[in-house]
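User: Could you check the structure of this?
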Amino acid sequence: MSLSINKISNISSFVANVEYSNMGHARLRHVNLNSIKRIMSLNLIPKSLIDLKQKCETCIEREINLLELVHCDVCDSNDLLTLGGKRYFITFIDDFSKYCYVYSVNHKNELFDKFKVYKTKVENQLERKIKILQSNRGKEYTSLDMSSFCEMYGIIHEVTPPYTPRSNGNAERKNHTLLDMVNAMLVSFGLSKNMWGKTLYSACHILNREGSL
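Assistant: Sure, the predicted structure tokens are below.
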């Protein structure tokens, strides 16, 4: 059965609108719906940019309970040290709640120790167990100690495909959001750049309170 010209035109228009909406959402780094509504209400973006009724496949929740999936990433500071001499920070993000824990560290290989600290704290507070840990393929994630620890506690460690760190999208977006906030706060309050560590914890606290990604 053939489609009429009007129907074809309507379908093409719908597909174009969806693609335009998805592009706008992606350019905003997949920020959540409430944040998009606030931005629109302030007239900072066109209200036609994003169709709020369209669901983004990237952002659809995969998990239904706390700690069933935890995203992790290590981010560097471009050799800019904190007042305490820290060069990197580690984020652990619960996929369901989007709640984030941040740890500043001197070296990437401190990931294993910080993961043990994080695991003990959240499992005790929430009375649940971490099921899946998702990260990229950095050496700090694939060490023998890390692998043995995950195997011992029945944690499935999912890693991104080779040479595709951006596949760890949730953690990457969180890092970008945190760093954007840190830079804005440093400039706004006239703070020196080595205060980024303290400011990072403040930014994380704000995001956790807002429930924002």
